[in-house]
Amino acid sequence: MHIELYVALAGLIVGFAVGLTGMGGGALMTPILVLVFGVAPLAAVSSDLVASLIMKPVGAAVHAGRGTVRWNLAGWLALGSVPAAFLGVVFLKSIGGSRIQTIISVALGSVLLLAVAALVLKMYLDHRNGIGGGVDEKIRVKKLPTLAIGASIGFIVGITSVGSGTLVIVLLLFLYPRLRGSQMVGTDLAQAIPMVGSAALAHVVFGDFKLALTLSILIGSIPGVLIGAAISSYAPTALIRGALAAVLLVSGLKLVNVPTLAVGIVLLVSVVVLVAIWLSIRASGRSLAEISGEARQHAQTPAPSLSGP
After folding, report:
1. Helix/strand/coil (H, E, C) string of 204-235?
2. Where are the domains of the chain?
3. Exposed/middle/buried for 18, CB within 10 Å: 0-12, 13-18, 19+?
4. Does pTM surpass 0.85?
5. What is the distance of C-alpha 28 from the center of its chain?
6. I need a labelling partner for 211 at 20 to 30 A (CA). Which of 109, 266, 289, 297 fits?
7. What are the pLDDT digits (tens) for 42-65?
């Protein structure tokens, strides 16, 4: 069994990004395996799902210990996602022949482009709602829509290994706009364990699981997640998510067979836009900090006395 050191390095980078932002594990790792290392799409999906099955419980355990998992919501999501994820793999197997690799590549590229739109939309909604948005601590579970979200995302994950984080969180944001952000992440991680487990089991049985490839991913991704999570409170998450969106956009376009020249132009435009946004955030951050400091200083200044000394 041969461990690929470069795959482990890619796992370290992807794990770091996941620990930092909470998103993008399958959406980054699977395209890297396909586009950079030349791994067959079915083998990349299978190995990445098995690696995710080992990674997901770590984050879920942390959130469960902090009480940020809505178990009733996770249960309804899993009720739809677990059978749908297994059926997604069976669907791939039933197609058969050489078309499987092409279908996976196109489906993966399409889901990546959808993930980019979802990620950008989430960043916009976070910016619009701000930190002080209302939170409902006694939220009522919308059973049928939640079940539908779980089933649709589960089927996508079974085919592509992408969507268990970014897509679920964004859809929950629409369905439960007053749910706390940490509870969205915790609930998603908890429901993703049986969903990813179902898809991983089906890929081990029907797919093209590679043990050495999975171990190579895990060797890098486990310390990467731990490092990313440790410094997540100090990093500019908005900028990193923007970079993540740019990477997903380029990967998605490449997987759906967009010409290389067009992909290069999109990458260049994305870099320019990210730099402009970063400069804008820095400028507004300084002005807001100055305003906040002046307001705090004004609040701490004692009012003039009317009675004299």
Report:
1. HHHCCCCHHHHHHHHHHHHHHHHHHHHCCCCC
2. 5-233
3. buried
4. no
5. 9
6. 109
7. 888 888 888 888 877 877 787 788
